[in-house]
Amino acid sequence: MVVAAGCQLVAMCDLAIASDAARFCTPGVKIGLCRSTPMVALTRAVGRKRAMHMLLTGEMVDAATAVDWGLINVAVPATELDKTVADLAGRIASSSSDTLAIGKRAFYEQIDRAEPDVYQAMSEVMATNAMAPDAQEGMGAVLHKRPPVWSS
């Protein structure tokens, strides 16, 4: 069971994988507490109405619902959890760490900005990224039909 600040932690993660037996809740309302800090990340992860449902009822949300609501990415049987996490981590780690850092920074920079000006900012990120050594290596690897060798 993932409770209160645990829900906050999950909601703050870029990616989250859980056992299909996992349950999530913010039960503070049942003991007279407003879950004020978990609500920040929770609202951004699942949206206003779903967050309010969790915050105002304190009810459990099962793993399938957590996937549907966007609190977690995937729910797998507990016996497959370690393998699933390791596989995802391996796929991410096979990319350039510089490119991942640029992408993650750009993602969070654009998420709350107005659409018209965010395209300009992201075009600048794309142009800068395209000139980076690992981008050049990646494009060269595609052209020469070989795996890339990242500098980072």
From TrEMBL:
<keyword id="KW-0276">Fatty acid metabolism</keyword>
<comment type="function">
    <text>May play a role in fatty acid biosynthesis and insulin sensitivity.</text>
</comment>
<protein>
    <recommendedName>
        <fullName>Enoyl-CoA hydratase domain-containing protein 3, mitochondrial</fullName>
    </recommendedName>
</protein>
<dbReference type="InterPro" id="IPR014748">
    <property type="entry name" value="Enoyl-CoA_hydra_C"/>
</dbReference>
<dbReference type="Pfam" id="PF00378">
    <property type="entry name" value="ECH_1"/>
</dbReference>
<dbReference type="GO" id="GO:0006631">
    <property type="term" value="P:fatty acid metabolic process"/>
</dbReference>
<dbReference type="InterPro" id="IPR029045">
    <property type="entry name" value="ClpP/crotonase-like_dom_sf"/>
</dbReference>
<dbReference type="InterPro" id="IPR001753">
    <property type="entry name" value="Enoyl-CoA_hydra/iso"/>
</dbReference>
<dbReference type="GO" id="GO:0016836">
    <property type="term" value="F:hydro-lyase activity"/>
</dbReference>
<keyword id="KW-0809">Transit peptide</keyword>
<keyword id="KW-0456">Lyase</keyword>
<dbReference type="InterPro" id="IPR052377">
    <property type="entry name" value="Mitochondrial_ECH-domain"/>
</dbReference>
<keyword id="KW-0443">Lipid metabolism</keyword>
<comment type="similarity">
    <text>Belongs to the enoyl-CoA hydratase/isomerase family.</text>
</comment>
